[in-house]
From TrEMBL:
It comes from Agkistrodon contortrix contortrix. Probably plays a role in anchoring the complex to other cellular components. Residues 3-88 form the GST N-terminal domain. Residues 222-253 have a biased composition (Basic and acidic residues). It comes from the Eukaryota. Residues 271-432 form the EF-1-gamma C-terminal domain. EF-1 is composed of four subunits: alpha, beta, delta, and gamma. This is Elongation factor 1-gamma. Keywords: Elongation factor, Protein biosynthesis. The keyword Protein biosynthesis applies.
Amino acid sequence: MAVAGTLYTYPENWRAFKALIAAQYSGAKIKVLSTPPQFHFGQTNKTPEFLKKFPVGKVPAFEGDDGFCIFESNAIAHYVSNEELRGTTQEAAAQILQWVSFADSDIVPPASTWVFPTLGIMQYNKQATEYAKEEVKRILSLLDSHLKTCTFLVGERITLADITVVCTLLWLYKQVLEPPFRQPYENVNRWFVTCINQPQFKAILGDLKLCGKMAQFDAKKFAENQPKKESSKKEKTPKEEKKAEKKEEKKAEPEEELDECEQALAAEPKSKDPFAHLPKSPFSMDEFKRKYSNEDTLKVALPHFWEHFDKGGWSIWYAEYRFPEELAQTFMSCNLITGMFQRLDKLRKNAFASVILFGTNNDSSISGVWVFRGQELAFPLSPDWQVDYESYTWRKVDPDSEECKELVKEYFTWEGDFKHVGKAFNQGKIFK
């Protein structure tokens, strides 16, 4: 019996495309709710009713007609698929899972770093973008080599592997992979075009136009997408202007209609504070950051932190990079941390972190201690923050435990035995 149910998402969500294309092949009947009044991203997915079914509040989220609920795009795509898409043998199923994991761990981070600034929703960083381009070249070369002797990624028919990787490459092919850039990867191009021209893909993606000219960062568009203050209609003295600015900052700005690109990446309404639903906390993160930046960490900043920390309004998490075997040169590993911090720029007001690289070239690991507003991970609150965090394992630690005290001390001071790591401190970065 074919699966039937409702998919909650936002318009043009490439992650939702995976399940929708899979459903075209399997015959699953999926009703899509992506626009008001049925579904308003940023509001509906934060209601108690929604969170009862989907605790993390992420989309896409699927609710079966039989009441079965599931989130995470890969899990949903797997659930609505048939045996042919999932793999008819144990080996094929493992290979499909391999490529699905590869898409998330290897393609999503550099693709986002490169594409997001061209859509005007993230600041451009030359070093990070150039590194992302090189990573995309590496990925395309790997895929090109594999597809030289294969029609599709696994076997001779389209599977979830092809669906997932195509959807993950979608915005690269639409925005930045201009003909001269993609020309060397003939096998990938052949495979990609073959897939998107299948009736099942076209039913969801429509007629896809490949990039003709590499999109560039548009500083003007980026500035336009930032929150703006209303200008006064009459001239005011500097004192009056300052008072007016303070009042304007307190007023909620009206939501702006999202254009297609912003919708595709689910940019949060600019005036919406993702933490507005939380009660006020007596702990001032800004005050702690000033202590941390200007005073002795061990003697002043840490005592201040523990004296004022509000364990009901904030939470502490230990994070560890999931793929240490893929870390090569230490400078490249540091770029991973820097890139993540840059993409989380708007989270700084409500978070603090110390992330450390341990070890040496070809034998290293990354882990860190994060402090977030609220009791849950902050990343699901905004699509802009979801690029990197799934590459880490996250464990909430009890602020009253000795383990937590030791972790905070070691990571915030960059000193200690770090017995849980087993490698020497190399260098660290602070998110504040």
